[in-house]
Every structure is written in structure tokens, then in C-alpha cells.
Specification:
The complex is a heterotrimer of chains A (about 260), B (about 290) and C (about 325). With about 260 residues, chain A is of the alpha/beta class. In chain A, about 40% of the residues lie in helices and about 25% in strands. The chains are: A alpha/beta (about 260), B mainly alpha (about 290), C mainly alpha (about 325).
């Protein structure tokens, strides 16, 4: 078990956005989190990555408690994420964006930057190397010097993924990685996710594209109104009556 | 330390609080509509003071008519300033800060050149005191406070009931949604800035007989206005009233225990405490 | 950020230009007035560069000048009351400022954006009012603290004259410039800009944003304290108004007019605006009027600051040249 949520709840005033959620993610798998709009999926991501605090329960990563830690500390332990509204450093170039992601690989802090020791320079070289390799593997090699804010949507999403991967995380949490992409781009991205899985990286994603989710995920958790209503393989989910009822009347976005 | 002494101290503190609330409301209105902090706000207050000096003290116009004149003139000046300088700075706080600073200096220096540096006294329109039990309240301060309250209520009704007022509130809440609903953001920004400055001008007219008129008279009220809106919450009308009462009360009581110079520190301590405990202000949330 | 050869050169070139200019000035003039202006420019430069360090992470720290004051009063008191040497209090005063910056910064950084601006402004007023109204025996109250001696001898050199003090400030300034420029052109500077653009993203990528911002706050305050110590022993008189809103506002103006996007912005802004204000001084009331008008016009027509003008001009020229070449049928790459 790489990631474990244990009776996690999050309350916003009177609203219980996530209610007593327990779920696990196994290492080396792609796990999907699905549910109708407003089901609390993004909240779950924010809870896991420490962006908002839990109201109850706890979250364990590699058997150690991460709930209550700062997001930066959670990232240091091996959890990285992307955001639903693609969040980039728009004034920086693509390479600069990825270099920020590679922060954990480099020598952070005041003194190294000031005194430019050999280890600082060596680690910067490594960070740059990893950054460039990631950009190449995600099809961004040609635009490395372009300003991120001017990239087309597909490249922006790829860059966000590159930044998350640059941290060297074991668990990558992706918030709607396929949103706004054409059918071909979606196929490319799911291919990337499969490659990640082969390399041993675990992926947890939220997606609305059912076809893609069922096609690429090993296991799926279904949320509705903050409550886990089902979990299992895609096949099991598709035939689960509670799941079907939750989605009844909800229009599936065209695949 | 008798209760009477404490209540008198509180009353002294409240005395002019409502006028400072007026200034604060102008500032917070501009902040909520344009998302910028107008550091030249005190200069519009000063402008209102000078209009009052010339129209009432020199020309002999009725005091309340002068107040209306001050409000309208300064409001117009505000609209002009917004159209010429501020309308492109929506949301760009740092640049707006520098620009409003430049405007402050331009207005200050112009006032010094046009009116001279010396204080110009303005005769009180009202004299005498009112006695309630053992408490003493000057008639002038009473009239000034009541006039300020009238203006505050008028503003509240304007924002609640009139179409331009509701448009301003819509823009303050969500400019994009307001634009989608057909609200003319440019017009609302200009009007909002104008109304905000008009409030400051009115406050200047109200306090002109109390403090005399000088080019630098805007500095103190604007500092108090900042304290009030931070404590009460930026963008909140009831918050500004509450903040004004709180500041007045704290300063009034503080004057009993420390020298009047040291009392000024209390307002800033209040600000720090509020920003730590409840950064959005006591009533803030918008 | 693969630096082209030209880009990698520019920090060194920039530092060299500043160091050479500072070193060359006494060769051009020994006039007391010009030395004084130059010393003031260098002192302001350390203040604006350190202010800009914090601005680069998105912090508009209105209490920056207060740390200058803390360093100034700390050194003044240690020298006049305990007889310590300036050469020790120079660093101790800066250290005191930095130490106080830790709790103050930690508190201020609990809020962000306009609230951070306001809380630091409130802090600066509290500090100023504290120096003005409390412990008059120590700080001099509203009349100020007088009788602060000039720096004592060091390695046989005396520091009584304007020239020697100019050299002292020049050395301090160059050290500060080198430090801050190196930081800006490193991962540290890259991270600062990222925090300004999207601090939550930086946090989720593994950077403790609070600690980073606090580091810039404390480092900036150390430099401000350093400038404050020099100020105290240069002017030899301290008054709380030296560390109030007016000088702080000027610091902000110098920095923003120069351009906060670049580490060189404060250099351009400080030098040009200090000279401008000296030139305008002759005009008395008109000085402030013109100064204010300059601010308004600069912000309206050069919102990124003066340092960004050459870049904007270059882009404009390229576009014009591109349009001119079109009739020939040759497409020019932008």
C-alpha cells in the first residue's frame, strides 16, 4: 500500500465535502478517482497534498503519516501533483518551469546559491539534465526556450506533468490530465501514463473521460457527495448498481 | 476612576469617529470596485476642506449648502482622476500605489502653491455644549457626527436601492460576472471613484470648522481611515462603522492612561492584532 | 534558463560597471556636496536592492526602513553608551535587525498580498512611534539622538572625512550588490520569481515557501540594518522620522520606477531618481509637483519600470523593421 486514506473527512462550515473516506492506492498502479461533479474529488487531492487540512481521519504515505504536514514536506516524501486549472510559471520559459520542479534534486538554499560550490554546480547540471530529458520525453523538447504563458493548451498540460515528474515523486497525482485535449492528444497522454507505470511510478488521477479512465486505470474509486460508493477494477465499477445510479442522468462527455 | 469619566472618555473618542468612518468608506469603496488603494484619498478630503473655506468662510454661503457643494465638486474631481489616471490600473496594486502617491504629491504641492502653506481657520457653524447628566458634548461635534451619520445612511441606501449603486456592488463582488450581465465596468469604476472621493470631500467639509484648513490636513484622517478599514474589513460598510467606533473608543480610553502623542500607537497595535487574528477584518469577507 | 554566453556575462558586467563607477567618482570630483550625494545614492542603493529582494518573492515590506532604524539605534547606543567600536557595531547592529526580523517576519508572513503590505506598514509605524515616544532617555524622543561619533580608526585609516566615508559606503554597497546579484542569477532567484508568480505551485513542488520568504525577509533586514548603522555614524544624528513613511515611500518609488522585475531595476531607479530629486530641489514647491507628475507618467507609460524600456524599445524596433521589410517580400523572423 503506497497511499492510504483512513476515515478522512473534510468539513467546510456546514458542508461535509468529504465524508469518512477510506481508500488505498497500490504502488506501481494507475488509480482513478471518479464521480459526478461536486463529488469532492479535487478536495481529496487537496487533502492528500496538504493544501487544506483534514477535519478528521488520517492519510498515510509509505506507512508514514502525511496528514498535517506542509505541502512542501509531503512533496519531499515523494508525492507530486498537477492542478485542474493548469498552474504554471507563465513568465518563465518551459525549461525554467521544469527546473523549479527539479528543486528537490538541486541544492536549495542561500549558501549554495551564493558560494556556487562544486556540489551546487554539479547538482544544477543534473537538474538541468533531468529537466531536458523530461521535456524530450513529453514532446516539449522543441519549445524549451519558449515562454510558458504562450504555449498551446496541450503543451501546457504536458509541462505541468513534466514539472510534477521532475520532483522524482513516487506518487503523481493528476487533476484532470486529459481535459481540453483532442482525441489524439488523449491517446498520447494515456500512453505516457502507461510508460510511467512501467517505470514504477504510481499515478492517482481524477478524470471525467470515462472511456479513458476505464481503459488505463488498474483500479478505480467512485465518490458521490463526498462518500465512497464503490471501488475496484474498472469492470467491477461499470457493473456496480450504486455507481450506475449515481451517474444516472449525468451526461457523459463525448470520448 | 468613575464610570462617568470612562463614558466621557469614550464619548470624546467617538466624537469625530463617524467622520473618519466617512473617509474610510470612500477608501473602501474605491478598493472594492477598482481593487486599488488610493493613497491620494486624503488630498480629496483636503480639497473638500478648501471648498468649504472659500464658499462658507469667505463667500458666506450657508454651511450645509457648502457641504453639498464640497461633495459634488470633489466627487467630480474624483471622476476626472479616475478617467485620466486610474482606470487602467485595475488590480495592479503596486503601480496604482506609485501613481496615487504621485497624485498625492501633485495635489499637495498644487494646494501649497495655490492656497499657501498656512492654516486657514474656518469659523464654527455651531457653538455651545449639551449636558447630559455629568457628561459634556459640544454641539458642533454633535452636528458633525449626525451629519456624517446621515451621509453614511444615504450611502447605504444608494448602494442598496439605486441602480448605479447595485451595479457598483456587483462589480465589487465579481467584476467578470457583472460584465457578463451587461454592466459597464468603466462607467461604474469612474462613478465609484467619484463617490469615494465625494465622501472624503464631505468629511473634509465637516471637519474644516473643527480643525482649520491646510494643505497637509488630509494626512491624519487617511491614516485613521486605513486603520478603520483594516480593523473592520476592507470592502465592508458595517465593518467600517464598527471599526470607526472601535478606534474611537480605544483612543478615547487610551487618552486617559497615556499621553495623546502615544495614543496614536494604539491604532496600529489594533491593526497588527486584527491582521494576525482575523486578517479579513472583524466583518470582512468579500 | 540555458544562459547564452551574453546572458552569463551580464551579471559580471553589471557589477563591474557599478564598482568602476563607484571607484571612479572620487577621481572626477572631491567636492563635498557631490560626495555627499554619491554616498546617499550608494546608501539608498543597498536599501532598494534589499527591498527588491523581498519584492521579487511578492512581498511589499513596508517595514524595511524600520530595520534600518533598528540597526542605526542599536549601533548608536552601543557606541555612545558602551564605548564599543563602530567596526564591531556595524555587524552587530545589522545582526540585531536580522534577529528582530525573525519574529516580525514570521508574524507578517502569516498573511499575504495587501494584508501583508498593511501589517508591515502597521509594524513600521509601531516601531517609529516606539523610537519617538518611548524610552526618551535612550532614543532621544521627539528631539532625536545626537552626538553619534564617526567611525573610529581601522588599520591606521581615519574615517573623519567625506571621502573616507564615501569609500566605506562604496565597499559596503559593492559587497551587497555582488551578493544580491549572485543570488538573483541563481536557483535562489529563480525560486523567488516562481513564488511571486504562483506560490502554491512552488510549495507543492517541494519548496517551503514560508521559510524561503522569511529568509529573504531576514536577509533584506540584515542589509537594511547595515545601511542603518552607516547612516547613524554618517549623519551623526538620528530622529524617528528618518525611519518613517516618507523615506520608506521613497524607497518603494525608487525601486518600482526602476523596475521590480530585474535585479538591476533598483540601480537604475535609485541613481536616476536621486539625481532627479537633487536637480529638482532648486524648484522648491515645484519639486514635489514635478516629482509627482514624473511618477504618474512613468507608471502610465512604463509600467514595468525604466529598466524594461530598452527591451521594449528593442521589440518595437524589431516590429517596425519587420513591417518595413515586408514589401520586399521577405518574411523576417520576429
Amino acid at each position: 500500500m503506497l497511499l492510504e486514506l483512513s476515515s478522512v473527512s473534510r468539513r467546510f462550515g456546514g458542508l461535509l465535502a468529504v465524508a469518512d473516506l477510506s481508500m488505498t492506492v497500490e504502488p506501481g498502479t494507475i488509480h482513478g478517482l471518479i464521480g459526478p461533479n461536486g463529488a469532492g474529488k479535487s478536495t481529496v487531492f487537496n487533502l492528500i497534498t496538504g493544501v487544506i487540512p483534514l477535519t478528521a481521519g488520517e492519510i498515510l504515505f509509505k506507512r508514514a503519516r502525511i496528514s498535517g504536514l506542509r505541502p512542501s514536506e509531503i512533496c519531499r516524501r515523494g508525492v507530486a501533483r498537477t492542478f485542474q486549472a493548469t498552474a504554471l510559471f507563465r513568465e518563465y520559459t518551459v525549461l525554467q518551469n521544469v527546473l523549479i520542479g527539479a528543486h528537490l534534486l538541486a541544492a536549495p538554499g542561500l549558501a549554495p546559491a551564493l558560494f556556487r560550490s562544486r556540489s551546487y554546480r554539479e547538482r544544477e547540471r543534473q537538474a538541468r539534465g533531468r529537466g531536458r530529458a523530461l521535456l524530450e520525453s513529453l514532446g516539449l523538447g522543441a519549445v524549451a526556450s519558449q515562454v510558458a504563458g504562450q504555449l498551446p493548451h496541450r503543451d501546457q498540460k504536458a509541462l505541468a506533468l513534466a514539472m510534477a515528474l521532475a520532483t522524482g515523486a513516487e506518487l503523481v497525482i493528476l487533476d484532470e490530465p486529459l481535459a481540453g485535449l483532442t482525441a489524439q492528444e488523449r491517446a498520447e497522454t494515456t500512453g505516457v501514463l502507461r510508460r510511467l507505470r512501467e517505470q514504477g511510478t504510481t499515478v492517482l488521477l481524477v478524470e471525467h473521460d470515462m472511456k479513458a479512465v476505464m481503459g488505463v486505470c488498474d483500479t478505480v474509486t467512485v465518490l458521490d457527495h463526498g462518500v465512497r460508493i464503490a471501488g475496484g477494477t474498472p469492470r467491477e465499477i461499470q457493473t456496480n448498481p450504486a455507481v450506475i445510479e449515481a451517474y444516472l442522468g449525468v451526461e457523459e462527455p463525448g470520448a | 476612576m468613575s464610570i462617568e469619566l470612562l463614558v466621557q472618555a469614550l464619548l470624546n473618542g467617538f466624537g469625530l469617529a463617524m467622520v473618519y468612518v466617512l473617509v474610510a468608506l470612500g477608501l473602501t469603496l474605491i478598493f472594492s470596485i477598482l481593487e486599488i488603494i488610493n493613497f491620494a484619498h486624503g488630498e480629496f478630503y483636503m480639497l473638500g476642506g478648501y471648498v468649504t473655506y472659500y464658499a462658507y468662510a469667505l463667500f458666506g454661503l450657508n454651511y450645509f449648502a457648502t457641504l453639498v457643494l464640497a461633495i459634488l465638486t470633489v466627487g467630480l474631481a474624483g471622476v476626472v482622476a479616475e478617467r485620466l489616471i486610474f482606470h487602467d490600473l485595475r488590480g495592479r496594486a503596486l503601480n496604482a500605489f506609485i501613481v496615487s502617491l504621485g497624485l498625492l504629491w501633485v495635489m499637495q504641492a498644487s494646494a501649497q502653491l495655490a492656497f499657501g502653506v498656512l492654516d486657514k481657520p474656518v469659523p464654527s457653524a455651531f457653538s455651545g455644549v449639551v449636558r447630559l447628566g455629568g457628561l459634556v458634548i459640544s454641539v458642533e461635534r454633535l452636528v458633525v457626527s449626525l451629519s456624517a451619520i446621515v451621509l453614511i445612511v444615504a450611502l447605504y441606501l444608494f448602494l442598496r436601492l439605486s441602480r448605479p449603486g447595485r451595479a457598483m456592488r456587483a462589480v465589487a463582488q465579481d467584476p467578470e460576472a457583472a460584465a457578463l450581465q451587461g454592466v459597464n465596468i468603466d462607467a461604474v469604476s469612474a462613478l465609484g471613484f467619484g463617490v469615494g472621493c465625494a465622501l472624503a470631500g464631505g468629511a473634509g467639509g465637516l471637519l474644516a470648522p473643527v480643525f482649520a484648513v491646510s494643505p497637509a490636513m488630509g494626512a491624519l484622517p487617511v491614516v485613521k481611515a486605513f486603520i478603520i478599514i483594516i480593523v473592520g474589513g476592507m470592502g465592508s460598510l458595517p465593518g467600517a462603522v464598527l471599526g470607526g467606533l472601535l478606534l474611537g473608543g480605544v483612543e478615547g480610553l487610551g487618552a486617559l492612561f497615556m499621553g495623546s502623542a502615544a495614543v496614536n500607537i494604539l491604532g496600529f497595535v489594533m491593526v497588527i492584532v486584527v491582521l494576525l487574528v482575523r486578517p479579513r477584518g472583524l466583518v470582512g469577507g468579500a | 534558463m540555458e544562459p547564452s554566453k551574453a546572458e552569463a556575462l551580464s551579471p559580471t558586467v553589471g557589477i563591474a560597471v557599478i564598482a568602476l563607477a563607484a571607484g571612479a567618482l572620487p577621481l572626477v570630483t572631491r567636492d563635498s556636496y557631490y560626495l555627499d550625494v554619491a554616498t546617499t545614492i550608494l546608501m539608498n542603493l543597498t536599501l532598494t536592492m534589499s527591498f527588491r529582494l523581498q519584492v521579487s518573492t511578492g512581498q511589499i515590506n513596508m517595514a524595511h526602513i524600520s530595520f534600518m532604524g533598528i540597526g542605526a539605534y542599536a549601533s548608536a547606543l552601543l557606541v555612545t553608551r558602551l564605548g564599543w567600536s563602530f567596526w564591531a557595531t556595524l555587524w552587530i547592529g545589522a545582526l540585531v535587525a536580522a534577529l528582530l526580523a525573525v519574529p516580525i517576519g514570521s508574524v507578517a508572513l502569516r498573511v499575504s498580498g495587501p494584508y501583508y503590505f498593511l501589517i508591515t506598514f502597521a509594524f513600521s509605524e509601531v516601531v517609529r512611534l516606539f523610537f519617538n515616544n518611548f524610552f526618551e532617555g535612550l532614543f532621544g524622543g521627539p528631539s532625536g539622538l545626537v552626538g553619534i561619533p564617526k567611525p573610529g580608526r581601522l588599520l591606521g585609516l581615519t574615517f573623519d572625512g567625506k571621502l573616507a566615508l564615501y569609500w566605506l559606503m562604496a565597499v559596503l554597497c559593492v559587497i551587497v550588490v555582488v551578493t544580491l546579484v549572485r543570488l538573483d542569477y541563481s536557483r535562489f532567484g529563480l525560486t523567488a520569481g516562481a513564488i511571486r508568480q504562483a506560490d502554491l505551485v512552488v510549495e507543492t513542488l517541494g519548496v517551503n515557501v514560508f521559510r524561503f520568504k522569511l529568509t529573504t525577509f531576514v536577509l533584506g533586514s540584515f542589509v537594511a540594518g547595515l545601511a542603518g548603522v552607516f547612516f547613524a555614524h554618517y549623519r551623526q544624528v538620528l530622529h524617528s522620522s528618518d525611519f518613517g513613511l516618507e523615506p520608506m515611500v521613497l524607497l518603494v518609488v525608487f525601486t518600482v520606477i526602476g523596475g521590480t522585475g530585474s535585479v538591476w531595476g533598483p540601480v537604475v531607479g535609485t541613481i536616476l531618481m536621486t539625481i532627479a530629486s537633487e536637480l529638482l530641489r532648486e524648484l522648491h514647491h515645484y519639486e514635489i509637483l514635478v516629482f509627482g507628475a514624473v511618477l504618474i507618467l512613468t507608471m502610465l507609460f512604463a509600467p514595468e519600470g525604466l529598466v524594461a524600456l530598452p527591451g521594449a524599445a528593442r521589440r518595437l524596433l524589431r516590429r517596425l523593421r519587420g513591417r518595413a521589410a515586408e514589401p520586399a517580400g521577405v518574411g523576417l523572423a520576429p
